[in-house]
């Protein structure tokens, strides 16, 4: 008798699991059920459909050879049945059946030997008045994305407000402002965008770049109501005032769709999400689950967490398909790897940001570096900014975040770190990591190696540094702090700063430090700086050897500071 499998959920995990089952066990009878008509689409491509980069929504459903993944495609090409516009109502684990209901109200009982749950997630609802007004959207489904694009393409939207500064909200902000020229505002309740994923410094770089691209970012602000006229949204009211809006996107996170599992008595997390084993089995060994409806282990912290990422759903779907068909593969957990494009810059990360590492109880610090993604003498190159997060006691690397105009360059470094984080790498491991090298592609000492080297020097006390955000605060209070910046670059770089702030900025090039020790006061708070932090570090070594123990080195140098939007030479 052939294996009977029912799969609930038809976006990412479900189709992947179903296709894998049929490849491994061709005789299996597989039925996939989904409440929507549109299935098996690239949900992460929705912002690019809204922007117009992807011209037709059907492209998000197409295979690489331009076949649309609909019911007929899966029947003809993959040999399993798909029931769209059909909702799963309940699971009878004892009888091993699923009760489903079609669009016309007809109910059917589907028997199973194995059941796969891939119900995904639902946008979190803000408990505020006005969220039901016309032109207020979430970005949860392809169907909703189609309606959003119809609105903006009609020319009736002049202003938009995005509530939530996470990945989806920011990608939608770019879509509106870049392609459609819509006046766009992002509101985030936290004190930075992408909270939990980036440090304050990295988030500030992103906020500055968004502002340069005509997107207004308002952090530490809470939405209190959405108001409208004649049933249509006209403004968003926050604790700091009102903002005009012809369209509103609510992008404040998602919650796992676990109600069906809970009602069936399966083990679920108190915070939401189905609990699964490494083989992706639920508390019922005949029921598997994956994607946005489950919680899995964070490999870095060892704790259970929620990671609604399309890449993970596809990976878990393949594992589930193999195991349902009689194999045994495991999903070891997540390190939390992401990348996002915001206009001309890419931002990416893996593992823990410094704020999250501290919150999780690690005694951690971070090191900032900025360096060319290709050899410094190669004519075409971009600057990569990296922040590496490290546990002090062990030197274990906990995470890496970065920004670069060349997204491929950044992605390569982040992916490299993501691949080794599960093995608990130390700074020495990353410092000696073998990276492919040729001048058009990298440096002999890659920026990833350099980040580890910098952090190692900080760990042993050889590089006593100050973070860019701390330096910015210090500069604001430079008089009361008795600050003196010693610029170790050549005069051409240092001149505008010295001329602008002669009492607080002094130029001593790194090659002249040894001969000018008598010019360095011992009664001031001294910060050494250069373009990237390299020459100022060399200068610090010289000074410490000469008995100057107080000067600190600016991490990432002026290159990183300028990315934050801080330029003392331009101050009034």
TrEMBL record:
It comes from Desulfomicrobium baculatum (strain DSM 4028 / VKM B-1378 / X). Gene3D superfamilies: FAD/NAD(P)-binding domain, Rhodanese-like domain. Keywords: FAD, Flavoprotein, Oxidoreductase, Redox-active center. InterPro entries: FAD-bd_OxRdtase, FAD/NAD-bd_sf, FAD/NAD-binding_dom, FAD/NAD-linked_Rdtase_dimer_sf, Pyr_nucl-diS_OxRdtase_dimer, Rhodanese-like_dom, Rhodanese-like_dom_sf. One of its GO terms (molecular function) is oxidoreductase activity. This is FAD-dependent pyridine nucleotide-disulphide oxidoreductase. PROSITE patterns: RHODANESE_3. Belongs to the class-III pyridine nucleotide-disulfide oxidoreductase family. Residues 507-570 form the Rhodanese domain. Its cofactor is FAD.
